Amino acid sequence: MNHPLSTDMLLGHTTDTLLRLSEYIEQLRKEHVKLQESLLELYGMAKMIGFNQDAVNWTGTLRDLGRKTVNFRDELAAHAKWEEEKMFPIAVWYFGEEPGPLVMMEQEHELPMQFLDAYIDAVKDSDGPIRCSEAKEMALYLLQAKKILEGHFKLEEELITALADRSNALGF
After folding, report:
1. Domain locations in the chain?
2. Cβ 112 vs Cβ 148: under 8 Å
3. Computed from CA positions of residues 94, 98, 101, 103, in that sequence, does the dihedral angle turn out positive or negative?
4. Which residue among 38, 45, 91, 168 has its CA within the 20 to 30 Å range from the CA of 27?
5. How many angstroms separate the Cα of 106 from the Cα of each of 19, 26, 96, 157, 161?
């Protein structure tokens, strides 16, 4: 996998495509920072669920967090779509084949989305007051999504750093 780009590989794409690579890398990094900040906010709120065990009803807090979760899920979905349509095709071309980490990263978008959706659905489907223990169980969906996404972002950053290093070595 550590082969340099050959002249044959370069001839198959325009200079514009190669130059877009650095723009895409920068966009990916900016989006990751924004997503990680939002994820950290969700995490902080989810960790506070059930902290005050004297609270009788967590419904309002869970619904507020649910609205933020919907916004985050939508941002994450847009990011995943951009990666799959723009970033990954260039990365696949750049490596000369589809490396295992790219396949895994595309699949990793699905699992945290399922946890985010599970939280949103649990809040939406709840009737009446939500007690502390139930609220904590619901918050676990968000905590699990965070754990998966942290690893996902780290793997993507490592792959993108490798791309950037190759691109810089070629003068792009």
Report:
1. 7-167
2. yes
3. positive
4. 45
5. 23, 19, 18, 14, 18
Q: Are 82 and 118 in contact (CB under 8 A)?
A: no
- Using the 8-state DSSP alphabet, how is residue 85 labeled? I
What is the fold of 7-167?
Four Helix Bundle (Hemerythrin (Met), subunit A) (1.20.120)
Are the C-beta atoms of 115 and 147 separated by less than 8 Å? Answer: no
pTM of the model: 0.82
Exposed, middle or buried: residue 172 (CB in 10 Å: 0-12, 13-18, 19+)?
middle
Tokens representing 48 are 């506070």
